């Protein structure tokens, strides 16, 4: 049975950790690979990324597999969360062996951050190593194939999508070949996710299931959004992060192609995208359980197309699952509050 989430790729687990209240509105999400790790790659398109260990994923470099990927709030400060994940992995003796003793390993933990500083009211309230450890422990404790909480959880706790509340979303599919492809996205975009003229989510235009909001509802939503902005509103410093995963057996170069093509999924659902104050980053993970059709040199195309489509769908799910926030750090209504749920 599938749950329409990243965890439909057998072996992958997802854990969230977050803090809210008393100045806090932030968190961390960890994608934990199966024992032995997963082939990994990354593609960064935003002009202001905050990342860790992404150079290790270059196909020209030594590291072939990783044991975890960290997505975190807190801007560059929040990258400290990866240290907690590394410590947990070291205790499990998971990482690159660097000595005769099996305990002598160096975990490679790629990480990327979103900007959510001050959104809970306290600029200094951001994820740290303890947050990362809590998230990876939550992932390890989850059942195989478990459902993944969406909306204002983990790295999406303080996320904002344009002037709406952002969050975490996930989706999956099984191709005709039997290969599973899935995506998890943290939507924290400077660009808008909804068409200002109609209120329709851009991502839903690509899904063929568009119900245009009533004009009176849309006008009320526009008035509400206008009330939340103003001359004192800080400039957006945002980022959309994604992990696209598959159980296909991919090389690092093929995984990097998956990560690059998946950015198309962001571009369909967020406008504008990949700006200088974005840090848009996509990781790709391949567990290698299923082989591509060796007789078909274009077999990867189905994975590429599915990855981009799933990123778009995950963004829609993130925005629809998000809940409104009103606090000392700002006011961000949810799409559901403004337009109703489906």
Nutshell version of this structure?
The chain has helices at residues 81-91, 129-141, 202-205, 215-228, 252-269, 300-321, 335-339, and strands at 13-21, 24-32, 38-44, 51-52, 65-66, 68-72, 96-97, 105-106, 111-113, 160-161, 164-165, 167-174, 180-187, 241-248, 281-290, 325-327, 330-332. The protein has 342 residues and is an alpha+beta fold.
Give a structural overview:
By secondary structure, this protein is an alpha+beta fold. It is 25% helix and 25% strand. The chain contains seven helices and 17 strands. It has helices spanning 81-91, 129-141, 202-205, 215-228, 252-269, 300-321, 335-339, and strands at residues 13-21, 24-32, 38-44, 51-52, 65-66, 68-72, 96-97, 105-106, 111-113, 160-161, 164-165, 167-174, 180-187, 241-248, 281-290, 325-327, 330-332. The strands form five sheets. The chain has a six-stranded mixed β-sheet with strand order 5-3-15-14-13-12, covered by helices on one side. A five-stranded mixed β-sheet has the order 1-2-6-9-4, covered by helices on one side. The protein has a two-stranded antiparallel sheet with strand order 7-8. Strand 7 and strand 8 form a beta hairpin. Helix 1 (81-91) crosses helix 2 and helix 5 crosses helix 6. The radius of gyration is 19 Å and the shape is globular. The two termini are 24 Å apart. The mean pLDDT is 94.
Number of strands: 17
The poorly predicted ranges are: none
The main β sheet shows up as: 6 strands, mixed
Class of secondary structure makeup: alpha+beta
Strand content: 15-25%
If strands are numbered along the chain, what order do they take across the biggest sheet? 5-3-15-14-13-12
Order of helices and strands: EEEEEEHEEEHEEEEHHEHEHEEH
The number of helical elements comes to: 7
Shape: globular
Percent helix: 25-40%
């Amino acid at each position: 049975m599938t749950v329409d989430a990243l965890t439909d790729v057998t072996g992958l687990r997802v854990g969230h950790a977050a803090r809210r209240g008393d100045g806090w509105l932030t968190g961390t999400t960890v994608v934990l690979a199966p024992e032995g790790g997963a082939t990994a790659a990354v593609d960064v398109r935003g002009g202001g990324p905050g990342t860790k260990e992404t150079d290790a994923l270059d196909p020209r470099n030594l590291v072939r597999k990783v044991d975890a990927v960290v997505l975190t709030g807190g801007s560059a400060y929040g990258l400290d969360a990866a240290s907690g994940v590394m410590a947990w992995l070291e205790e499990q003796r998971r990482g690159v062996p660097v000595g005769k003793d099996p305990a002598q390993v160096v975990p490679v933990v790629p990480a990327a951050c979103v900007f959510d500083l001050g959104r809970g009211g306290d600029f200094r309230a951001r994820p740290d190593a303890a947050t990362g450890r809590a998230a990876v422990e939550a992932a390890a404790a989850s059942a195989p194939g478990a459902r993944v909480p969406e909306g204002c959880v983990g790295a999406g706790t303080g996320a904002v999508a344009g002037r709406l509340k952002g969050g975490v979303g996930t989706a999956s599919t099984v191709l005709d070949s039997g290969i599973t492809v899935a995506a998890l996205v943290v939507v924290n975009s400077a660009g808008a996710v909804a068409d200002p003229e109609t209120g329709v989510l851009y991502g839903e235009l690509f899904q063929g299931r568009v119900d245009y909001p009533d004009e009176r509802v849309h006008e009320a939503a526009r008035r509400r959004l206008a009330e939340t902005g103003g001359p004192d509103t800080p400039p957006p410093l945002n980022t959309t992060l994604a992990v696209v995963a598959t159980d296909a057996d991919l090389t690092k170069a093929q995984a990097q192609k998956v990560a690059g093509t998946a950015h198309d999924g962001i571009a369909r659902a967020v406008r504008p995208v990949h700006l200088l104050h974005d840090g848009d980053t996509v990781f790709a993970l391949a567990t290698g359980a299923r082989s591509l059709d060796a007789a078909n040199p274009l077999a990867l195309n189905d994975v590429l197309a599915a990855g981009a489509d799933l990123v778009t769908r995950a963004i829609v799910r993130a925005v629809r699952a998000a809940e409104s926030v009103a606090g000392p750090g700002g006011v961000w209504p949810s799409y559901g509050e403004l337009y109703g749920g489906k």
